[in-house]
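Bumping with the actual sequence this time:
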Amino acid sequence: NKRNLFTFPPRSRGLAIEGRGNAVTELRYIGWLAGAPIAYWGDLDAKGFHILSSLRAILPQTRSILMDAQTLDDCRDLTATKTHLRPEMPALLMPAEQQAFRRCCDERLWLEQERIPQDYIVRRLG
């Protein structure tokens, strides 16, 4: 999402890349990323977690940000109902991500990253 890309809090020696959904797997062609710390932030819904897992398959050092139950709880009033679900658990999620994935599926939640308030993002990311 371009809004999130352009408003992402500055990071020392950091680079933000718009992944365009499943196209994040194209990052495998950027060789130096294999040795770099990677953070992924996508929508909190089944698809976002599947994309995270796909990215981890090629860049296993990837960690997620703001893709957890705390974000779902804190931003619950900003969620929508998702009708198209992918209930199979993605293979490469960490336990906290698995918990958030289950909640998204069980409660049919969809929290688009662009709906998360900027002050919340800055506060959580420090």
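The tokens above came from a reply further down the thread. Strands lie at 39-40, 63-64, 80-81, 109-110.
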